[in-house]
Amino acid sequence: MYGAPVDLSFKHISSLADAWTEEPTSGLRPLKRNSEMKYQSHSLRLNNNNITDLHDLQKTVSDFLAEPLQLAWLDLSFNQITHIEHVLCELRELRVLYLHGNSIFILSEVDRLGVLPHLHTITLHGNVIEANKAYRNRVINALPRLKTMDFSAVTRQEQVMAKIWHHSNNHSRRKETLE
């Protein structure tokens, strides 16, 4: 990745608007800024806060990053997020998305992320949706380019099994509606 991550973790942020006045934590690698004082990074850490919704995500990304459309790595883990909002689908260069340790409870919302052409790593464990027996199959089927899910490799066999699971579930549902 390009530049150190912009780290806004552990800042007691409950609304993304709260982040706009925060100064990122300096890590081992120094953060570089451009002439507009925006950070030259493609990574943003907003983990371990109290964020409940992502309404202002685009503005937050634009406020901090010199190239907001190039955001590739986003850590939203350990917040209070309940929904996978459409705003995540606008992050077209996103490759890594951490959402573990939140309160996401509608498994079908994961399907929205299927429009992200480069998403290859996601974490969703520690959310209510993890209790669904179809959880891993559903996520792998919805995100066919995944290489890693919940810090575990997605195998070729799992991809095949997720497709089979998806087809058998859709076939069962169609059959039920016809009867």
Describe the protein in words.
β5, α3 and β6 (148-149) form a beta-alpha-beta unit. This protein has helices at residues 16-19, 57-64, 135-142, 156-178; strands at residues 6-7, 43-45, 73-75, 96-98, 121-123, 148-149, 152-153. The chain has a seven-stranded mixed beta sheet with strand order 1-2-3-4-5-6-7, with no helix packed on it. With 179 residues, it is of the alpha/beta class. The N and C termini lie far apart (53 Å). α3 (135-142) packs across α4. 34% of the residues are buried. It has a single domain (6-177), classed as Ribonuclease Inhibitor (Leucine-rich repeat, LRR (right-handed beta-alpha superhelix), Alpha-Beta Horseshoe).
Radius of gyration, in Å, reads: 18 Å
> What's the CATH H-level superfamily name?
Ribonuclease Inhibitor
Find the count of extended strands (DSSP E, 2+ residues).
7
Distance between the termini: 53 Å
Mass-distribution shape: globular
Classified by CATH, the class is Alpha Beta
Number of domains: 1
Secondary-structure class: alpha/beta
Q: Residue ranges: pLDDT <50 for 5 or more in a row? A: 174-179
Strand order of the largest sheet: 1-2-3-4-5-6-7
CATH topology: Leucine-rich repeat, LRR (right-handed beta-alpha superhelix)
Main location: cytoplasm
InterPro entries: Leu-rich_rpt (IPR001611), LRR_dom_sf (IPR032675)
Pfam family, one: LRR_9
Subcellular location: Cytoplasm
